[in-house]
Amino acid sequence: MKKHWALRYDFRMLLILGLGVALLANAVMRFPMYAGIPMLLLVGWIIAIQPRVKRERERVKKSVDEAFRTAYAPLTRSPSIAVSSSYGYPAFEIKFGSKSEMVAAAVQNEVFKLEIDRVFKGYGPRSRPFSAEMAIFFTYDGYLDELRTRYKTA
């Protein structure tokens, strides 16, 4: 049943997209000045903001790298970091070599959370601001296997 719903949804979205493209093409053909000028302005604006977007992305990446180095500098064996995005918010996975390393680095994990919270302060709407607590996941090698065995027996 769920497959049929998904196909219907995909078909509906493609139909709406096609209708939108057809209406836009019709407007450009019938009224080239009124439709063409806003499109050119939009494309120009998108091209103009690209350097600023790139600088902001690099600034955030540098800040995250610096926060990671600062937080985990005292450790002899540094964990790895994987940065991704989830629901429009940044997400981080800090992976340790073992469970004992992760437990021993609890203080560093809190420092990292505070630094990430500082870097991404102001991200998101007021109703649901960025939360480092929800964005950072601490794992270790064998974590998924441990979860599987724990819930298999339960």
Q: Topology of this protein?
A:
Elements: H1 2-30, H2 32-72, E1 80-86, E2 89-96, H3 99-104, H4 106-119, H5 132-135, E3 136-140, H6 143-153
Parallel strand pairs: 2-3
Antiparallel strand pairs: 1-2
Characterise this structure.
The chain has 154 residues and is α+β, with helices and mostly antiparallel strands. The protein has a domain of 94 residues: GMP Synthetase, Chain A, domain 3 (2-Layer Sandwich), CATH 3.30.300. A three-stranded mixed β-sheet has the order 1-2-3. A hairpin with a 2-residue loop joins β1 and β2. α1 crosses α2 and α2 packs antiparallel against α4. It is elongated, with a radius of gyration of 23 Å. It starts with a helix and ends with a helix. The mean pLDDT is 87.
